[in-house]
Specification:
alpha+beta; Aminopeptidase; about 180 residues
């Protein structure tokens, strides 16, 4: 696996795609995919419908020097796929601890893209975290399988608010020790 630093966030290469920092030119594809109710409903923070300007604000936040999270586009151009097949976020939640979250465009569901992205990010461990956490809605078994297939261990049940659903949703929490 090859890593190449751009600005202060690495590009992480996989066989089929690259995880790369967001660019302003990604706004259209991010809006198109994140604006899909099927994607928004599986996240805590994507509203549906997607308000004007929200994607541009996300990109600006991802490019800010003082950010606490790194956001990568799953860019499949090297294998003839879309420039934005999904997004993967790693958020610093405490010293040595980060939280991973991701979404994949419906056109790439059930193709292994999410597992490949999570595995690549774990191998690179760009935050040098000693533990990485994740949370998925209990009605999203596919995302739970991604985590367990990537070595995450179940910690317990919780709840999170989903903006798109306008409701509090039961979740499963997972962790992976990195050292």
């Amino acid at each position: 696996m090859k890593m190449e630093a751009i600005i202060d966030q690495p590009v992480i290469a996989t066989e089929r795609f690259d995880l790369r920092p967001l660019r302003r030119s990604d706004a259209g594809l991010i809006s198109y995919n994140a604006g899909d109710v099927r994607v928004a409903r599986e996240t805590c923070n994507i509203p549906h419908p997607l308000p004007p300007g929200s994607t541009e604000a996300l990109i600006a936040r991802a490019q800010a020097e003082d950010r606490s999270e790194d956001i990568w586009a799953m860019d499949g151009t090297k294998s003839g796929r879309s420039e934005v097949m999904g997004l993967l976020t790693l958020n610093r939640v405490d010293i040595g601890r980060s939280e991973i979250s991701y979404w994949v465009a419906p056109a790439y569901w059930n193709t292994g893209i999410a597992s490949e992205a999570v595995e690549a990010l774990l191998a690179a461990n760009p935050h040098e975290a000693s533990a990485i956490f994740a949370c998925v809605f209990q009605d999203n078994a596919a995302s739970a399988r991604v985590l367990t297939n990537c070595g995450f261990q179940y910690l317990g049940d919780a709840e999170s608010h989903s903006v798109a659903r306008g409701a509090t949703v039961p979740t499963w929490t997972y962790s992976k020790k990195m050292t």
